[in-house]
Design brief:
The structure holds two protein chains of two kinds. Chain A contains 22 helices and 22 strands. By secondary structure, chain A is an alpha+beta fold. Chain B has one domain. Classes of the chains: A alpha+beta, B mainly alpha.
């Protein structure tokens, strides 16, 4: 037993120790209170947001792409609905019984039933929709509609497909859509400050983007903006209530400059031959017709192609995917002659009365090399106008010979050669406008006078795309100025290219137009066969691109046995004269004669535009 | 008539109305909170109400017995509860890989909740007549006893409760006059043995919980989930709270264990900082009433018991709150009188019954 003294000290000791622990705990509880205060009061807004983020789930709503119209308001590309039968698994108790009831009037395949059975539980627990049957027929829709009051947890949902109503006609101009990959999607969504997450799709194919052509270039405008539905969710991600909806904003419709009728005419006139047609409205630079032939069906590409079909398209030696209109490089051949002639005028090398004697060939003084014309014996005494009409090579060899190459290149550049002249073409090629520096860099050779001489007739290194040729035609037609080309209807805001000249005046342009009208209408014109195809004046210049150089017609007959060796046929044209509205360029690969093969295509397009 | 009843209450029965009223209040608040935390589960709430009702009666009955009864029977209580512990580890009901419960048919008893009371009671009874400072022999006997019992609980496994038992034992030892030198030496030893304890005494999931504490954002959807969601629940409650049964964290299943360990998060979410303050005020009232009673207890045995048990109560609350606000690792620890669970509830009613008994049975110290 402890004594009183000890009892007293024990008590004191106990008091001290208990109060010590209580003091420590009091401090600890105050700390807890402080921590709670900082969570609930100081950091309240952070945690409020976190709790809100926890319990809400945003589900994106895919917008529909804009409709693409032709210049007259005809729909070219549209969104076509398909109808799916959709279940709400969370509200369905007896799936088996339900499927049996549906099968009474809508046929279901084993795969469809299996798919639904396999995914039913998961979708039900998350309260998500489940597609039972895709692409319902009209009959199936009608059968369901009359019975729909019996099936409140089933509904018919719309899903769209992007459909080009003229799938082969606009393959290269409008292009096609395809699946948007995850990186692309992330970018699209981050532009709208959204995160990639669950989406209510408007398109049967899911996320889509324009892959080529207008669909690609104007993807951002056509795409629209994602909307969102905001749901309350629990921790498992099950959707509880819809709290809010921000509707999707469908993409802007696109009024294109393209003309359905002219496009049809151009496409049919090409008739699957390899080549391209570009027609533009001169006053605005609007692209009216844009055909690269042969073509392919964009709808098939967009909606899934079998491996075999795809391989066939890829391996097709006519390269249907290749967009010849902006990517095909062709020598302009004789179509360059008006530009060369104008160069002679500008530099005072020649005037309209300047005449030379054309013996059918030109001998380069430096090395006595012979450059031949197309007509044996030549054109005799010939001036610029007749040299255009009859397409004298000798005249232009001689003129080019007297030209400074740097001046000549910069002159041709003003006509669009070697430049991208389109605001919104898909992957345009600039062609090639050669220069001494270019030749040194790529061929490691100096520039020969002979190279300049070749340039005078559009052969040699010079190459241009059909759209550049159309641009060149348009700038000739418009007497030295033109808007950069575009697929937008009413392209009047487009930047204007103006040819700055010192010595070319209106009368020179008029004389050039007159000469080019003569190409068709003059008895000696190289494209005289086109005269009967039209009842108004058209200015033109045809060309024949030599792929293999031959000295005689007999030699050519031998090499033409191989179709690939045959000359390309080219023509540029504008009309109706004297106040031209439209300019056209046509290239037909291995078509041999610019005037008689490419010419009718150009006239057909021109007729469809002029004779309305 | 009324006077007679009050007289009866003053003289005939042993009753501390401060503790009784505050604990009753706390219990009723607990039922209200539990109803919301259990997603409005009536069955759970009614079951808990029975425990509260019988617990309060039990507390009253326990408080009528003289402290000497507890003193003389402390060893029997201890042996009985150790027996129950052993029985649990042999025939206990396994839930989620833990064997902590004895199935009594009408009620599953968590036996570690009983030893939580009987161990400090026994230690108080063992040490009350030992001279100061406590001899090394008595210290070691006490410590070995504590460690053996703690280990029996730890292997169930029940880290939280074993921890509480450990500190409850040490509180009694400390209050009884454990020498400071010994405290210093054993603290040093404990710190040095931490790496060993870490590697050998903690289950991998327990280690993960401790690591999570220091960086809950490292794996917010995995091991950090509970604590992250708990903080969001508390923080988003703000000052006023979201309203009764309006807590999205609790009601949309983001918050784990809402009925037991994380019930405080539900309270904080629905009643805000204001509600937290009221709850803590009731707790504080009980703490300081206990302190007052301990300081004024009639003898050393009562002092040690009241001190030990009230510190056990404080520690349990502290561990629970510190856990849910993310300042200590997650250990299973109910909030006394609030969390669901009959065993914990009954053990605290018994504990406070003993405290009231010791506070109200006065006897004059004869010279």
């Amino acid at each position: 037993m402890i004594d009183l003294q000890e009892r007293f000290s024990e008590r004191k000791n106990f008091f001290n120790r208990l109060i010590l622990i209580y003091a420590v705990f009091t401090a600890l509880f105050i700390f807890i209170l402080y921590k709670t205060y900082s969570l609930q009061v100081s950091s309240f807004s952070d945690y409020e947001i976190a709790a809100l983020k926890n319990k809400t789930r945003e589900i994106l709503i895919q917008p529909r792409r804009g409709i693409i119209y032709d210049r007259n308001g005809e729909i070219l590309v549209n969104n076509v609905p398909s109808y799916n039968l959709i279940l709400k698994p969370a509200f369905i108790n007896d799936l088996k019984n339900l499927l049996n009831e549906i099968e009474q009037f809508i046929e279901l395949s084993n795969e469809q039933v299996e798919y639904v059975q396999n995914n039913f539980q998961k979708k039900a627990s998350l309260n998500r929709e489940l597609v039972l049957k895709k692409n319902l027929t009209k009959e199936e829709i009608a059968k369901f509609e009359v019975r729909s009051h019996n099936f409140e947890n089933i509904f018919i949902g719309e899903r769209y497909s992007r459909k080009n109503l003229y799938p082969d006609l606009f393959s290269h101009s409008i292009g096609y859509i395809g699946n948007l990959d995850s990186d692309g999607l992330e970018k699209v969504l981050s532009d709208q400050s959204l995160l990639a997450k669950e989406t209510i799709f408007s398109y049967a194919n899911g996320f889509i983007e324009g892959k080529t052509g207008i669909e690609n270039i104007y993807d951002e405008k056509l795409r629209g903006e994602f909307g969102k539905k905001i749901y309350e969710v629990d921790a498992t991600g099950k959707l509880l209530d819809e709290l809010n909806e921000v509707p999707a904003i469908n993409g802007d419709d696109f009024n294109s400059s393209l003309d359905l009728e002219a496009q049809k005419v151009a496409f049919n006139a090409m008739n699957g031959r390899r080549g391209a047609v570009v027609a533009v409205k001169i006053s605005t630079g609007e692209i009216i017709s844009y055909v690269s032939s042969p073509s392919f069906s964009v709808n098939k590409i967009a909606n899934g192609l079998s491996e075999k079909e795809f391989q066939e398209l890829i391996e097709d030696k006519n390269k249907p995917f290749f967009d010849r209109a902006v990517q095909g490089r062709y020598s302009p051949a004789s179509t360059i002659k008006p530009a060369i002639g104008l160069f002679g005028i500008e530099k005072n090398i020649i005037d309209w009365d300047y005449t030379i004697k054309d013996p059918g060939f030109f001998i380069l003084p430096e090395d006595n090399r012979i450059y031949r014309g197309w007509k044996k014996g030549g054109h005799g005494d010939i001036n610029l106008s007749n040299a255009i009409i009859e397409s004298s090579n000798t005249f232009f060899f001689s003129l080019a010979y007297q030209s400074d190459i740097d001046d000549l290149t910069s002159h041709l550049s003003k006509f669009g050669f070697g430049r991208n002249i389109c605001n919104d073409c898909f992957l345009p090629d600039t062609g090639l406008l050669p220069s001494p520096a270019w030749k040194m860099n790529t061929h490691n050779f100096g520039w020969f006078k002979g190279d300049t001489v070749n340039l005078g007739v559009g052969q040699g290194y010079l190459s241009a795309t059909p759209i550049q040729l159309a641009y060149y035609a348009a700038i000739l037609a418009n007497k030295g100025s033109i808007n950069r080309f575009s697929f937008i209807k009413d392209n009047s805001l487009s930047e204007e290219d103006k040819l700055v000249t010192n010595n070319i005046n209106i009368s020179d342009w008029d004389k050039m137009h007159k000469s080019m009208i003569g190409v068709i209408d003059s008895p000696k014109g190289t494209a005289g066969r086109l005269r009967s195809l039209k009842d108004y004046a058209i200015a033109a210049k045809s060309g024949t691109v030599e792929l293999v150089s031959t000295d005689t017609k007999e030699d050519y007959k031998i090499i033409r046995e191989n179709e690939g060796n045959r000359d390309h046929a080219i023509i540029i044209a504008f009309g109706p004269m004297p106040n031209p509205e439209y300019a056209v360029s046509v290239v037909i690969e291995n078509g041999e004669s610019g005037g008689s093969v490419a010419g009718p295509v150009a006239i057909a397009v021109m007729n469809s535009l002029v004779n309305r | 008539m009324i006077k007679r009843i009050t007289n009866f209450f003053r003289d005939g029965i042993y009753f501390d109305h401060y503790l009784f009223i505050s604990i009753t209040l706390l219990s009723i608040m607990g039922l209200v909170f539990l109803f919301s935390a259990s997603q409005g589960n009536i069955e759970t709430t009614i079951k808990q109400s029975f425990f509260v009702f019988f617990g309060l009666i039990l507390m009253f009955l326990v408080s009528q017995l003289d402290p000497d009864f507890y003193k003389s029977n402390a060893l029997i209580f201890l042996l009985l509860s150790v027996f129950l512990l052993l029985l649990t580890s042999l025939t206990g009901k396994e839930i989620n890989g833990a064997k902590r419960w004895l199935d009594l048919g009408f009620f599953t008893l968590q036996t570690s909740e009983i030893i939580k009371i009987t161990l400090p009671l026994f230690l108080a009874a063992y040490l009350f007549d030992k001279s100061l400072p406590i001899s090394l022999k008595n210290t070691f006997i006490s410590i070995i006893l504590i460690l053996v019992i703690v280990n029996l609980v730890r292997i169930q496994p029940d880290l939280g409760t074993s921890l509480v038992i450990l500190i409850a034992g040490f509180y009694v030892l400390f209050l009884a006059g454990l020498s400071w030198r010994f405290i210093g030496a054993s603290t040093g030893l404990f710190v040095l043995s931490l790496p060993y304890l870490w590697n050998n005494f903690l289950e991998p999931f327990q280690r993960q919980r401790i690591l999570t504490l220091f960086d809950p954002d490292a794996d917010p959807y995995g091991s950090g989930w509970n604590i992250t969601q708990s903080k969001i629940a508390i923080g988003s409650g703000g000052f006023q709270g979201k309203g009764y049964q309006q807590g999205s964290q609790a009601h949309l299943d983001f918050l784990p264990e809402t009925e037991t360990d994380f019930i405080f998060s539900v309270i904080a979410e629905e009643f805000g900082f204001f509600g937290v303050c009221i709850l803590l005020s009731v707790f504080f009232f009980i703490f300081f009433r206990c302190l007052y009673l301990a300081l004024n207890a009639r003898d050393r045995f009562c002092r040690l018991t009241i001190g030990g048990i009230s510190l056990l109560f404080l520690s349990t609350i502290f561990i629970n709150l510190a856990m849910v606000i993310g300042i200590i690792p997650v250990v299973g620890m109910p909030l006394p009188f609030i969390s669901k669970g009959g065993s914990s509830l009954l053990s605290f009613y018994i504990a406070f019954g003993i405290i009231i008994s010791m506070a109200t049975h006065k006897k004059l110290i004869r010279q």
